[in-house]
Here is the input.
Amino acid sequence: MIHKGCPHLTSLFSLAQQSIGCSVSTGVRMRACITTSVVYAVFLVSTLFTATQVVAQQSIPAEKIETLQTQLSEAITASSSARKKLGVRRAIRACEALLEENEASPNRFAVLGLLFQAQQAQVKLDNSATNRRAFLTTCEKLLAAPDEYAAVRLDADLLLSQAKLAQQGADQKARAQAIKPLVQRYLGTEVDTKAVRVALTMGIEMGDAGLIGHLRQVIAEEFPGDREMINFQRDKLAGQVFGAPFIGQFKGADGKAYRFPMDALGKTTALYFWTKEGDGIEALKEMVAGWNIVSSEAERNTPLRYQFISFNLDNLPDAGASILSELGLDWPALHLPSGTEHPVYKTYVRNTPKLLTMTPSGYTAMVMSGSTRVKPGGWERSFGSSLARVWTKQDYTAQTRAMLSGEFTVVDLTGAFDPTAPPEWQAIHETGIDSAKKLTRTSTSVPEDTLNVIQACFLKPPTRYEQSYEQIHARFRRANELCQQAITAHPQAEDLWIVRNRRIVALLALWKIEGKRQHFDAAAQEAQATLDNDCPAGTDVIARFCLARQTLRSHEGDARDVIEEFAQVDSTKPRAVTTDTLASLLALDIGDRALHERYRRASLDQYANHPALWTATACQLDRYHRYWLYHPPFTAGWTYGRRMDYFFGIGDHENAERRIKGEFMTLDGKPFRIPEDLNGQFTMLEFLQDAAANPRLRRYGTFVNQRPFDDVQTVYAVLDDDAKAMREALETYNQEQLKRKQPPDSSTYILVPDGLDHPIVGQLNVTPGEKRNNIAFLHSDGRVAAFKSGLTAGRSTMAQSVVEWNDEQLVDDALARGDLKEAQRLAFAHAPVNQQPPPDAPKNWKPKEIGTVHLRARAKVYAAMGEWELAKEDAQAAYLAINSKAGHISMRTDDLDEIEKLRDSIQAELNQSAAGK
Here is the structure.
């Protein structure tokens, strides 16, 4: 038992038992409740409200509340049991009298909180039925308390919830399920982290893996960088690995302020914590030697994808910079005051020496403490493995850095650069730009040729991502130089802001590529110069974005305030559509996942189809980026690859509404328009680099042909204009199919004019390359259901999953609008009952194997028909299949939660029906 050997916790256990009204004779069922009560009883330390609590008109005077607080404190700490009883009773009467006089006072809950504590103490001293009932009555009243009194409401809520479940004889599963909504009620309050900690401890005590997993996800989404929560998980989740953003503000040996994860986002970073004491220097040398063996000379001299940052633990005046210099290391050296006593050390490190790997998105892996010295040869293996991982690969980091530096704000995917309508000017016009809205050029404007040369340095995706580190690095250095020359040559130009914006972005890109602060400092200076000079309202968003980062680096208060101030624009001025996306990037700079998701969601909900945000939207929706954005740099274990494949292969549709429009040509020269020529079908549109490409969707020919409706088609978009080569390749393939006695490929092939420069390529973030498949799944009206980019692993069954998810959604929609007949038509077509072979069936005919998704849809239809036994049969079959898949990846999935809920609701109907007979 948790309380064993601790008198204080033992007394709390007794109190919890008495408060609920349990007894030893209640049996195993009630003892389970008591065991749970032990855990949360530890946390029943109610907040004593002070006079600074909510003060409003007709409020209870603060002096009276303070007097009650003092009276109760003296009673609880009285020297004898008799004095305690007497003092507590008096405190209770005083609280009740004050409440009776102030029934409607807004701060009456402060007094109710004191009454809760007094009655809690009374039950402990005198466990009578009367006292227990009075205590639970107060708990009921506290449930009506607003969120500013959440601290005292939480304890009452927990106690009352468990008491009611115990009285109902609830089993462990029911008690675990009841905890989830309770935690949800306290998110966003001052005790949200406490509520999660209490609930997680209860889940661990129960041994409920589902509840533990749910609460870990809550922590990951709401409090990933909260040090208290990180420490709590490290202490409680023995042997578990979880991700957490590395968050902190430090001073460098160069005297500059550094903020994490901001200053290390965009590349893999090794945070090395070391001491010169003992064999610390020798350990440092061993690590460096291992790195030198694995990495190339170019990588060591210019850390384009992997960088080191030093944290010395000895409180040295120069943070160990001189020692690093003697070893030939040009690492940023940061101070960590108090060394091993620093909160960052206690939360993230806990061992010396320690190399903590941080992904380009700022996440580290929190693992159990182990040996601090790496075995001989271990560093070579460790670095070699790290350099082979996704988070250090060029394609992933190139896209990540491009987003972080804000390149999308100065690149126009719709066509050639237009000095009268640059991207940032388009961004302040939500409905597009016509000739009347374009900028007017004058004799003092920056020459168009100059602007075009500068703009040429900023490549459009996906060409941008195909550049090597060296190539893109050279382009941004060139852009910076050209911008400086233009600023010097045309200081009075009215459109100089166009040049300044591009210099800011180029410098931010160099900062992300090289990791050197000098580039950011120069960008901040240029941003200030932009604001100091006239520029059209709204086009200053790039400069404000840069300066917000500068403010965040040394900001001592709530960093959210800085970001929210950036996002809030004077309603009388234009607001760039890129503002929310840039705010979401600032949230990543401070490691605030919840804030990032809030601004990401705002951008997707409003501007998913605005051309100024095509690149950003594609990146924000890309499954590859979504998966790795919050993933720790940890790949050990046999389930790693399986989980990744599962995530990439799920059929869920995008939670944004993107639309595709365009006109193309078929191989025989006929026009093909999207969405007009989709013929009312759900379309799988695969992009092929050229005629030599191997279409992945061909393997789904049987799947498409055997569907009960002609509602799915396959279209291939070839990214070159060689129709002859594609026709020849298709003819060759079909001849081979005939030899194999297989059906020919009758899919539609279209040519994409301008290839990689066509707007649809950038809008979807098509990532070409050998063995890369880019597939868009389109509704008949051109809405994007989902997109599989070339970054995504190729082993997943995403195509079939997306189509079948759409099948189930159509059934759900029919049921939601009360059209049972349509739901039956769809569900029973995809999951036919009593399948019989047709007259011309071959001897080896087998009935259609019904997939899990279609089984689940049929179960819902049976339930709507009132055929509960049939619904149960389908739901159970779907559950077994989904549970098996969840076991395969050793993870509780959303699908498993959904099918369990459906199965249990069906069983509940059966139970109710049986009880009524």
Remarks:
- Residues 1-57 have pLDDT under 50 and may be disordered.
